[in-house]
Amino acid sequence: MRADYSTSGSVGSPWAVVAAVLAGCWAVAVTVLSQSGGWLVDQVLLVGGLDRLVLLWPVLCLLTVLLIGTAALPLALIPRTAAIRVTGRVWLAGALALGVLGLLRAIPPVHHEAYLAALAATAGLLALVADRLTHRVFGPGRPGGAGPRPSVAALLAVAAGLALLLPWVWLGALGGLLETVLAGLAAAAVGTLAGVLLDARFWRHFEFGEPPRPARLVLVGGLVAGVVLLLIGAGAGQSGAQLPLLVALPPAGFALAALHALNRRSARPAGRTPAAWLVGLGVFGPLAYTDPEEISLLLAGTRDVPFWVAVATGAGLVVAVALAIAYGLLLARPSARSPRRAMAAATALALLVTVGAVGVGAGQPGLHGERLFVVLRQQADLTGLPAGAGKAGRDARAGEVYQRLVDTAERSQADLRRELRRLRLDHTPYYLVNALEVDGGPAVRAWLTRRPEVARVLVSQRLRPLPAPAGTAGGNAPAPTGPTWNITMIGADRVWSELGVTGAGVTVGSSDSGVDGRHPALAGGFRGGDDSWFDPWNGTRTPTDRSGHGTHTAGSAVGRGGIGVAPDAQWVGCVNLDRNLGSPAAYLDCLQFMLAPFPPGGDPFTEGRPARAPEILTNSWGCPPIEGCDPQALRPATDALEAAGILVVAAAGNTGPFCGSVQDPPAPYPDVLTVGAVDDRRRVTDFSSRGPASSGLAKPDLMAPGADVLSAMPGGGYAALDGTSMATPQVAGVVALMWSARPELIGDLDRTRRILRETATPVQAGDRAQNRADDCGGTGNIAGAGLVDAYAAVGATRS
């Protein structure tokens, strides 16, 4: 019998066995808690709008190595039994691999290709180092090889790996071409590392007795291998992508043990090949078919990516357990006949065909990688615009602004567009910001960055498709029987009843998740025509909304039945936030449509109609770095809208009570009317973001009710929601009342803002330490000018 298949006798003394069991439980607990806890910290920081902690994962993974190593090192050195020593050594090796691979999470998630390349290189290097050191870990002997033809065990391992991959092919979606290739290389490297640690020399130490006892090999060896796979899986993938591996990968250790029992009876041993194939294919699923940025609490409220990742993980666990049981029963019995190689090859081929058929049929075929947002150096000169009051003067300015923006973009983008066409790189030009969105990865980004006309290149987030549409949100609150509390608090109902002003003659533009155009509170206010609705996400031709956010905000601005501030104002809509994550290009699509609406399928550069632009824009969204925006990404857009006489109202954000939390564009910009939130007692809410902006500018500008605000929801229902998103459309509605009362004020943004500030009423800044005025540089950075007062503002406008 060859040396690498010698047996090692008993499992060891009872005390050593107990110590090994406790060390294994400790390793599992530390790994699961640290990985899930680290991801949760990442998500809390993201939802809270706080800066990402670059050192979080390096520190956490190094701490994990120390905690696991403290328990594994004595097992590796002290016991006399070889099986216990090897157990401690392989767990220690797995913990070290986790620590090294975890350091790579310091790379920002937005640079996913760079992370995958680093993971492939690092895991490959670790495999080489481990290969050199395995004779000390496992003892002397040769690992065995598969030869020119794959063995039965290797073919069955491929079948098992494809079975683990199947749920991800069905429910996930690939990224870009380079991203997918790098994910494959990284998965292969991680699989190779697992193969080195779990090769034949590892398994021989669990062949207790002579002849060996396959059942004990599968049970004991499978448990030890499962811990190793847990540690390796914990290091593979950015924050979030490793979580499915913690669940689905460890049970595969029992299948690998059964494959070794089969391999031992084979004349052509497979060595480390089974573990490499099974683990590599199992890791490829989460790495390639999910974007770690989308495994986020930001998308957890609906049946979005986190839901489907959980479903795929559960399916993977079921498959792994089924494989462990089936392989254990079929392959580990001493009397079992070894499957024929042809049968094993047919099984692997059948699963390969199944994976391909599912991916093309039931899955989401194609590549769905991120795009690049290319900002050019030259932006349009918008000085010296024609003066004029009222709607006619605003329309004249908007037309001139539109023409200058288009001319600048056409001229300065010509050479770059020609090169992109030559290279067959799909691209979309923009003019509101002189920019293009371009398909391409790091190589294209490097080429674009070197071009003289390019100022900078950002990543434009692109959400991957879902296996089924997310459910439509609804509301179960009863319809109001009169003006809601927030309408009464700002005096909008008095404007209707005492001043006879309801917003007629003014149009409000809503850029959000959409609007349910059939809702009874909103149907009558839709402006209509072929240029009042744009859905760049789903291509719908009539106003629709699945998430409910946009319907709610539009209802607070112009809804009828007591929920909207300006119930007789008209509205137009655009979808820029269909699944609660956007991109610079998605936001720009809608802002550009608002400056110069165009018909369905029309060219924004040639078919825009600036005379049809809404007078006021309500924007209950922000573009954080995770979506690709930098602080100045949308600044040219708001500058142009300001020059055109279109008032941009934007939410301050829900990242309070921290000072300096008005961060995400467009809220920090000086030409944007930024709105914070108060509750029904006129107190600034804890979640309302505080200033100052990064430029030092005092923000927010005004406050409005934003806690427990009742408004419309898709399907005709109503719901009460919280957020500065809810406060923002009420200020837009107040401006609609002002301009409806005095149309010659339309487009006079400075005067409008001055009236709003001068007529605002005081609010309570709160009594928490974070809310003290001196902490944030003054009351203006907490509450702005105060609570908007519709009655006083309209009265001042008329006088």
Question: How many separate helices?
Answer: 25
Q: Could you report the average pLDDT, rounded to the nearest whole number?
A: 90
Distance between the termini: 104 Å
Could you describe the largest sheet, including whether it forms a barrel?
7 strands, parallel
Q: Approximately what portion of the residues adopt beta-strand conformation?
A: 5-15%
Task: Calculate Rg over CA atoms.
Answer: 31 Å
What general outline do the C-alpha atoms trace?
Answer: elongated
Provide the domain count: 3
Structural class: alpha/beta
Structural commentary:
It is a single chain. With 799 residues, the chain is α/β, with parallel strands linked by helices. It is built from 25 helices and 15 strands. A hairpin with a 3-residue loop joins strand 14 (709-713) and strand 15. This is Peptidase S8. The active site is at residues 512, 549, 725.
Topology, element by element:
Elements: H1 14-47, H2 56-77, H3 82-102, H4 112-137, H5 152-171, E1 173-174, H6 177-197, H7 200-203, H8 214-235, H9 243-248, H10 252-264, H11 273-289, H12 305-331, H13 341-360, E2 364-367, E3 371-376, H14 390-422, E4 427-430, E5 435-439, H15 442-449, E6 454-460, H16 485-489, H17 492-499, E7 507-512, E8 533-534, H18 549-558, E9 570-575, H19 584-595, E10 616-619, H20 635-643, E11 647-651, E12 673-678, E13 702-705, E14 709-713, E15 717-721, H21 724-741, H22 749-759, H23 773-776, H24 780-783, H25 790-798
Helix pairs in contact: 1-2, 1-3, 1-8, 2-3, 3-4, 3-8, 4-6, 5-10, 5-11, 5-12, 5-13, 6-8, 6-11, 8-10, 10-11, 10-12, 17-25, 18-21, 21-25, 22-25
